[in-house]
Amino acid sequence: MAEQVAWSVGKRGFENLLLSSEADTAAYFGRVGRARELSRQAVASAERAEEKETAAGYDAEAALREAMFGNPVQARQHATAALGHSTGRDVQAGATMALALAGERTKVEALSDDLVKRFPQATLVQFNYLPTIRAQLALNRNDAARAIAALEAATPYELGADFTGAFPPAMYPVYVRGQAYVAMHQGNEAAAEFQRILDHPGLVFNEPIAVLARLGLARAYALSGDSAKARSEYQDFLTLWKDADPDIPLLKHAKAEYARLQ
To answer: Are 124 and 140 within 8 A, CB to CB?
Structure first.
């Protein structure tokens, strides 16, 4: 990867793409500080190449990553930056999802309504982005059953991938459904959802859900009473994040949960 990134330096259209990919990989292993710096470089590189929409997409992706790792302040900052430069379909959807994960409601509802009006016939919007956003809003209100219901519309489409946007949206509905089952203390159902993500690495690549599904699976096994499997999954996650930044809220929670199983 380092060799390819070095090759891309100064090459218009290539440098920003590989910097963004490198940021995702750093985040996959919990190196959030490094991911932030690489994302900043990716945005700057895209702006130099006059790729405004691409630059906004990198901010939207960074917002989503920060929100999923438990950093709502940084998530809001990146989402605001993304929306300040673009209201493109994928950028707005990614930023809106990040804001939903960060606990926003009013702004998320307004942005979602705008997506409904502007893209009434867009399959990705109507059957992936919006159901996922609505489900997350329901989870924020501690209404996991409504979250499950909201995601029914996404079921036939959730394995679909569009790699031209701000982030690959495949499997995000599956991840949120898994979170909803965890909230409902339905461990077996949650485990099935997270396992589906791990069974499709070619769809999720180095997206945040590719590694967080492992933590979700650990939590699901703990809920179902299978302590041995839960410990094994926690160990897998913590091994992947052995060099992670120690101040990540999600990592602190994971370590505390694992300690309780010992």
So the answer is: no
The whole-number average pLDDT for the span 58-73 is 97
Which segments of the chain does DSSP mark as H helices, in order? 2-8, 15-28, 32-48, 52-68, 72-85, 89-101, 106-118, 123-124, 130-140, 144-150, 172-183, 187-198, 201-204, 208-224, 227-240, 249-261
| Structural domain includes residue 261 | no
Please tell me the pTM assigned to this model. Answer: 0.96
User: From the CB of residue 62, how many other CB atoms can be counted at a distance below 10 Å?
Assistant: 31
Q: What is the pLDDT of residues 84-116, one digit of tens each?
A: 999 999 999 999 999 999 999 999 999 999 999
pLDDT(166) > 70: no
Judge whether 8 lies within some domain: yes
Q: How far apart are CA 80 and CA 26, in angstroms?
A: 23
Number of structural domains in the chain? 1
16: containing domain: 1-50
